[in-house]
Design goal:
Length: about 350
């Protein structure tokens, strides 16, 4: 890919949208990052917008905007903040996208100078993809990895001899808490089987709620005392707890995988038979397969092999039918979770999730 000037990259990184010439961007990625022939002259950013949605108004493939900027793998990890009230302009004469602010009363434009925003200052910024769709999945443990539960603390008894625990109840826990005081509670859930081999490749964790530490045990054999803060399902003795992870910054940048990916859809979250746009699915590849957060995959229905009607002994493989896009937002060793971004058909277990062509 052609190298762009430091100034151009800085403007792209700090202003939030690329300002590279259209001709340059198309030369680098001729089939994936072309502007739409009917792209609008401008778009006013409003609360609820996403980078993906805004990009889709200008580019034929919304996910490829980092390629238009010419960013490398490390550079796309930086925040790209855009705020409600700013305006994305399509300068047709120069083939550039520019970010500006309305002056309010005059209808003019104030040119924004490049500036860096530090971590934690992006609370009002729009997100890369719909945050409400994936928020609950970011901090809850979804997959139980090998040996992860071996030494995890666990509930030994609810208060007053109760069978189950609800919000506000006391729970008694044993195990090494280290320095943590806030925990999530879960128990092993559904086994996830590879659609190709039929082997169990992971166990999905059933998220039950959260606990807050009230009092540490004073002796080695004394239980710790917790209060149930939130419950999704009733907790019981034997349920395991893990420290609540730090909430991530919802700033994911889409990109194609570094290598060839030929994965399959393993499960549809919620136990339904088929999934649609903005639903969550898992695939049978993860970190071990060089998939990382932000990876974009092409969803396709697997083409069947049929007998040729004119020669029943001759078998014909039908082509795989592309029908949508999957955005990977959480990755484990052998399983990844993705948000269905754009589909023209339902997503079924066993469908293909491949590198974009």
């Amino acid at each position: 890919m052609k190298k762009f000037s430091t100034a151009a990259l800085l403007l792209a990184l700090t202003a939030g949208f690329g300002t590279l010439p259209m001709a340059t961007a198309q030369a680098a990625t001729p089939t994936r990052c072309e502007f739409l022939p009917n792209a609008p002259d401008q778009h006013v950013v409003v609360r609820g917008d996403t980078l993906w949605g805004i990009s889709g108004k200008f580019l034929q493939h919304a996910w490829c905007w980092p390629q238009v900027w010419g960013l490398n793998k490390e550079e796309i990890r930086n925040p790209h903040w855009i705020y409600p009230g700013q305006i994305v302009y399509f300068d047709r004469a120069s083939g550039r996208l520019r970010l500006g602010n309305s002056t309010g009363g005059t209808g003019g434009v104030v040119k924004l100078s490049p500036h860096m925003r530090v971590q934690g200052m992006g609370n009002d910024a729009i997100t890369a993809i719909p945050a409400d769709a994936i928020g609950p999945f970011l901090s809850q443990p979804l997959i139980i990895e090998d040996e992860e539960l071996k030494d995890a603390p666990h509930i030994v008894a609810p208060q007053d001899g109760r069978i189950s625990l609800g919000q506000g109840d006391k729970a008694y826990v044993v195990g090494d808490l280290k320095e943590a005081t806030s925990f999530q509670v879960f128990r092993p859930g559904t086994q996830l089987k590879d659609p190709v081999t039929g082997k169990v490749i992971a166990n999905e964790a059933l998220y039950l709620g959260t606990l807050k530490l009230d009092r540490r045990g004073k002796t080695e054999g004394e239980a710790h005392t917790f209060t149930v803060v939130e419950t999704k399902q009733e907790m019981q003795s034997g349920d395991r707890i893990l420290p609540t992870p730090v909430a991530p910054i919802l700033n994911y940048v889409p990109h194609a995988p570094t290598g060839e990916v030929n994965a399959r859809v393993v499960s549809i979250y919620g136990g339904v038979a088929a999934a649609a746009q903005n639903q969550i699915v898992s695939i049978n590849q993860g970190k071990a397969d060089n998939i990382d957060v932000g990876t974009v995959l092409q969803l396709s229905r697997f083409g069947k092999t049929i007998a040729d009607p004119s020669d029943r002994k001759k078998m014909i493989k039908l082509p795989d039918e592309e029908y949508g896009t999957l955005f990977i937002f959480r990755v484990f060793n052998h399983i990844s979770y993705g948000l269905i971004m754009e589909v023209k058909n339902t997503v079924d277990i066993g469908d293909l999730a491949k590198s974009p062509e």
